[in-house]
Every structure is written in structure tokens, then in C-alpha cells.
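Researcher: Please translate sequence to C-alpha cells.
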Amino acid sequence: MGFGPDEHYFAKRCYGISGLVEIPNLDNGAPNDILSRLFDQARQNIAQEAAAYKAEEPAYLAAMDAGRTIVEALWTGKRRRLQE
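Model: Translation complete:
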């Protein structure tokens, strides 16, 4: 099962799952849990990304507020010019 782009197909590398994942044979009562394990890994990766983002969140929110202030000022100025 592929999770990375190559010359045969295009797949996204979502949530840290990438490359080719071999699907095991289900011989001798082997568990059919490949998708469960992939989802477990994705959940772990999402949790790690969220923890890393938490440290950057204040700077991100401040940048978004600054950008919003700039856009609002530009929009307000444009509306004023249109009304004149």
C-alpha cells in the first residue's frame, strides 16, 4: 500500500505515514490489523504534531492578530475611498 508519490500513482504523505507499507500475509492466524496499526501510528503522529504546535501557538496567534489588523485597516481605508 503506497503513501508517497512515485511514477505510478500520487498519494499524500498524511500524518507522518509515507512510503510503501507492506501488507502482510494472513497466514497461520496472523491478525488482520494493518489498518488499525496505521491509524494508531497516525494518531500518535498527530499528537506529537499538536504538542509541537502548542509551543508555537502564542507566536502564531500574535501573527494572525497582526495580519487581521492590517487587513481590516486596508479594508476600512478602501471603503472610505469608495464612499468619497
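Researcher: Any highlights?
Model: The chain has a mean pLDDT of 83.
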